[in-house]
Amino acid sequence: MTAMTSSASPAPTPRPVLNRRLAEFGTTIFAEMSALALRTGSINLGQGFPDTDGPEEIREAAVRALRDGRGNQYPPGPGVPELRTAIAAHQERRYGLTYDPDAEVLVTAGATEAIAAALLALLEPGDEVIALEPYYDSYAACIAMAGGTRAPVTLRPHEGSFRLDLDELRDAVTDRTRLLLINTPHNPTGTVLTREELTAIAELAVERDLLVVTDEVYEHLVFDDAGHLPLATFPGMRERTVTIGSAGKTFSFTGWKVGWVTATQELTSAVRSAKQFLTYVASGPFQYAIAEALRLPDSYFEEFRADMRVKRELLAGGLEQAGFTVFRPAGTYFITTDIRPLGETDGFAFCRALPERAGVVAIPNAVFYDHREQGAPFVRFAFCKRTDVLEEAAARLKTLGR
What we know:
Structural class: alpha/beta
Strand content: 15-25%
Number of strands: 15
Strand order of the largest sheet: 2-10-9-8-7-3-4
């Protein structure tokens, strides 16, 4: 009797541990470059956080909330009533937009959670999202987590700034387009969309019945006298726009992670449905402090903007003297530069070598592009730092031309 032989089936290929939708996203460039700054003792002009705290009275308001036991336990899911009321009052006083604080305002763990919750709530697998490229890195990851497909429309250099091609935007809309993801003032380019551009975006959204998520966290850092123009103020847009704001950029308390959404009751309810399963709630005592911050007099916002304008000019001048082509931002606290006048073409290689060459850290803009070649020669610097730090950084960067 002969023994039967059996052939074992080949072992299956192990499934990757990481969700395939996130496979293209590794450690963020911000973590990499901040670690490089620490390791080399360089000045970190990469990540966009201030190196000084915001108003003392607002910090004390947070301390007072802690001591009074306000927010030390779970705050209400939509946010504490005082903050929701302050957000609604801010939108009405600044822009004439009226929102019901109980139904049309949602407090989030920073703008990053607001973006994630909005996209998870409003997208289904296969939906297309048009985003302005280059874009903040969380946009791509959140679209992927929601099962959507991103369709970038590239802002390109033109006469000293990065501009939107409205024909390209219109051509990007397909039958699968669900949502426009707009960012103005725009990170990383510093572009502020004009009234004409916003009008065209609004008309396109209405014509094609698109939702719009608009990231306006730099609303108080528009450097010309016209000021910020919220997309929700344009005809037909309030009912289809989710507007995202944040305290971190305006009040220089980025670690508090207090952001918000304003939208119609239907849209706010949808975003809240996703948000409640992310952080649930966050930043309890800080919410009370930001409620007070939003009620600061106009002079605070004017002085904040004026201070950043001076810092913009300080760093821009230093970068120009170092040999960069500088795109002076109309908003935000970032400056995009072109490294080609320095004989460089690869922003990644340039930024990884810059700490050793000049003792300064910057961010390669290519990380914010799907079309990496479009962003290859551009590098971003943050100027939300102390004056002495910016002066030292400018002095160090001058050594590049030697």
